[in-house]
Amino acid sequence: MSGIITRLPDLGWMLRPLTEIPGVRHAVVVSEDGLRLGHASAQGLTGSVADLSVAEAESLSAACAAMTMTGRSTVGLLFGEGAGVRQLMLESEYGFVLFTSAGVGAHLGVATDLEADVALVAQQMQLLVAKIGSHLSSEPRDALPQSS
After folding, report:
1. Residue 129 belongs to what domain range?
2. Where's the Roadblock/LAMTOR2 domain (predicted)?
3. Alpha-carbon distance 31 to 133, whole Å?
């Protein structure tokens, strides 16, 4: 069986407006099944993850997909099967992580420090999705043709 592997474009450049918000550390665009579509880190960060590497962004993407699936299961139980997840937020002792739907089959994740204005970050995430959501979308991949 043979197939064609298509390299996905890196959408990290679209995330720069988010990483320029005070307190935002990292942003990632992820497909619904956990593939990293792009990521960006704020300039001049210090600490344990000062610059999100591709490997770390891929791990964050997988975690985002898992959180979204968990959220979907939870709202399905509480509000019925058709209920969707619009946004998730995690709070830790070091900051916040926000996840939001970002077009068809894609999600946007942003990590902040504790001093970030989380309401502003969530609003700017929604504005970014409204502005460039079609570029953030990740259509389902086509099945590979069967070879004879």
Report:
1. 12-135
2. 12-112
3. 13
Number of domains in the chain: 1
What pairs with residue 41 in β-bridges? 26
In a domain, 3, yes or no: no
Residues with Cβ < 8 Å from 61, sequence gap 6 or more? 28, 30, 31, 34, 35, 36, 37, 109
- 140 lies in some domain: no
Residue 5 located in a structural domain: no
CATH value at residue 50:
3.30.450.30
Measured CA to CA, the distance from residue 64 to residue 61 in angstroms comes to 5
Determine the average pLDDT of the residues in 87-104: 90
C-alpha to C-alpha distance for 122 and 85, rounded to whole angstroms: 14
Give the DSSP per-residue string, 43-76. TT--STTSS--HHHHHHHHHHHHHHHHHHHHHHH
Torsions phi, psi for 78 (to 5 deg): -85, -35
Residue in this structure with the two tokens 């609003």, named with its chain if needed: 123
Nearest one of 82, 91, 83, 88 to 68, comparing CA atoms: 88
